[in-house]
Amino acid sequence: MESPRERWVGRDAGPVVRPYAVTRGRTRPRGPLIDLVTILVATGRVPGDRVWLSREQRLLLDLCRRPSTPADLASETDLPFRVVQILLEDLHQYGLIEEMPQAAPAERPDPRILMRVLDELRRL
Q1: pLDDT digit string (tens) for 37-68?
Q2: Predicted confidence band at 32 (pLDDT cuts at 50, 70, 90)?
Q3: Distance separating alpha carbons of residues 22 and 93, to the nearest angstrom
Q4: What is the 3-state secondary structure (H, E, C) of the chain?
Q5: What is the end-to-end Cα distance of the chain in Å, rounded?
Q6: How far apart are CA 57 and CA 103, in angstroms?
Q7: Is the pTM value of this prediction over 0.85?
């Protein structure tokens, strides 16, 4: 069941895959970092003939069909956040996902209200 070069965690888990193997050896995104709470959504475009998407990228693209943040995507895929950032940056460069516009500062809630909500949640 287990080859000498392959380490398994358990029968159901399968082999251990190092994060750099998922990102094809990259440890940092090529472009600007995608923020932890940036809301991303799939554009609906089809990848070109020359674009090869990994299984993880296809999963992320599928999850982005509904607006999601990188933090949520990392949680749903059980991938390290940095790996998700790199894969999402690739999808963004391919034009397969885009950032949703954020609310204008005037439309955002007052920070004092948010702090009060946070304080009340901590009391629970």
Answers
A1: 889 999 999 887 888 888 888 999 999 999 99
A2: confident
A3: 17
A4: CCCCCCCEEECCCEECCCHHHHCCCCCCCCCCCCCCCCCEEECCCCCCCCCCCCHHHHHHHHHCCCCECHHHHHHHHCCCHHHHHHHHHHHHHCCCEEECCCCCHHHCCCHHHHHHHHHHHHHC
A5: 49
A6: 28
A7: no
